[in-house]
What does this fold into?
Amino acid sequence: MDVLSGILLLCLAVGLYVVCSLYLLRNPWILHKRKRLEFYCRNISHRGGSGEKIENTMEAFTHAVSAGTEMLEMDCHLTSDGYVVISHDSNLKRQTGYDQTDLPLYEERLEVTFYVGHYSTGKDRQFVLLEDLFKKFPSMPMILEIKENNDLLIKKVSNLVKQYHRESITVWASEESGVMAKCKEQNPSMPYMFTMKRGILLLLLFYTGLLPFVPLGESLLFFYLPSIINRTYIPEESILKKRFVVYLLQKLTMRKSLFEHLTKRGLQVQLFVCNEESDMEAAFAVGATGVMSDYPTLLTNFIKKHPPPPPIYNYINRLLRYGGHQNKVFADIKQTVY
It folds into this structure.
């Protein structure tokens, strides 16, 4: 009898846990205060839109902004003389043809990393400094991925962000938890993304039902759209070249209920790198709040053809862009709408 009672109590406890978890998954505001970011971006340009101009050049960033992008993504390195420069690779062989640490010109024709067989060209082939971007685009939200575990780099990036008063519209990004810990310590006022380890933990919490009960410090989730792997993007990692692994990744990560839960908590979910309209459509359909692309013009045109339901979106976005990022009330309205 005691064994039967124990089993019944266990079943009751599990059932109650499942019901509570599902209810809180759909209604997270009961336990968690909604995050309020001062930007809401559907159109994010990867490396400044590396499919339309040479990646990470001032020409690329300027073109992306004029094409209608709402956020710029870039990678930061430190030069030997202490300047924060925008560059994806730590070694310049792919980008310039020269294996050196100085800054020569980019190649005249550069393959798009996430769109194999496609190339970009442009008049501007010079590397750009982060400070120059801050000066030219003072109110444009930016994602800064720290590519080195370098304390001086992190400090200099943080100092530039503070100097130009853009903590609320500049995002810390890194795959490495150790690097992210240093970033948060250096400037805790900046929003930050999930690292790889934290992303895995997020999935574990989601599938065990614990996610609705756990507070999250992150404000953004960046993740591959798995369907691009081995199609438009050929990964270097051999494990990602196996179809079963990509299929499993697709099934485990592209969960609309997960993304809806995160967005209800005020987080933004950005999927990358979508360089075809079918991929953009798939990303938004699964619940992404934003899409990262190498083709800002293509993405802008896609969004125009598939506008978000509330007509207030474009109005608020213009107010945020031209009225100054300090106008938090409009960001709050936008977060509430979405």
